[in-house]
Fold this protein.
Amino acid sequence: MRTWCEIDLAALRHNARFMRRQPGCGSGLLAVVKANAYGHGLVPVARTLAKAGAGWLGTAHVDEALPLRTNGIGLPILLLSAALRGEVEEIVRQGFAFTWSDADELRHASRIARHLKKNARGFLKIDTGMGRLGCFSQQTSELLQLAHQLPGLECLGLSTHYAGADEDIRFARNQCRAFAPWTDSGLVYHTSNSAATLRSLNPHACFARVGLALYGCSPLPAFRDHLKPVLTWKARITTVRTFPKNWPISYGGTYRARSGERIAVVAVGYGDGLFRALTGRGYVLLAGRRCPIRGRVTMDQIMIDVSDVPTAQPGAVVTLIGRDGSEQIRAETMARWAGTIPYEIWTHIQSRVPRRFLGSR
Ligand SMILES: *Cc1c(COP(=O)(O)O)cnc(C)c1O
């Protein structure tokens, strides 16, 4: 293989157990596996999390949920995005849980449910400050009543979503307060993503919806050492050459070699999902050493400075994300270099990069 990811399922189990033990997790864990399990590989990840104690799975939409069923995973599934009209019939047939925000969605789901002689199940979402899905707090009673009256609807409870429990605790507390009237209503509810779970904002929820932390990245520095990175990204060196002073490296010659600089070409590029923004920024690991990226990231190849690694040769394995000796590059670190967030680093890794699963039972 030229470039690949290794997915450590033992680390995933560890993170799932750690999050499950957090008071902020409430009575259960909904493992968020949207976007191909944050790029980690949907089915092996979901299967592992099901065995590690997740009671629910969360996907963005119905097309992501179906492969879970065809692969024999029977956990209840919550669709985190709003459903398109054309998706509702399949969702009701499958018994997936909707995220509802308004009366039109409730009425449409009820119509389809009656037609299929099945129940449409879902949670009514309240927008407490996310500005994405949900109804306003003052509409909640009316919508709950409507959901109760409409035939074929099974409203499982309420939900909300925090807009920045990692970065703005005061805003998160305000959202928590806005939702508080509903936590005493006797209805089941869920609210927390990874950051809100670690901050224990709603310890009495029916479950927390956890993604990021399961994959080993902590939204809060205090928990970083408790979570194990799950994904390692590697690629092989294809060629190594020594350059004379000032030789231009890569498109545009934005980097000029030092005299006698040894440069290796690595078989990975933005076509694999490595951010082009890493041009001239950051480094990779080789033989336990940091090797800076030189010049522009190209579609299939990058150049790295291996002057300090005499053993660098074609076929040698470079670590883009992961550990090598005492050095480690976390997805968070790469995200900082690329000016983005770990979620995007992972979900950007293309299907062209095979995922190898380690530590399965
Ligand atoms: C993606 C998502 C989550 C998970 O968030 P993390 O920060 O990855 O834990 C939770 N809830 C909703 C509604 C989401 O869309």
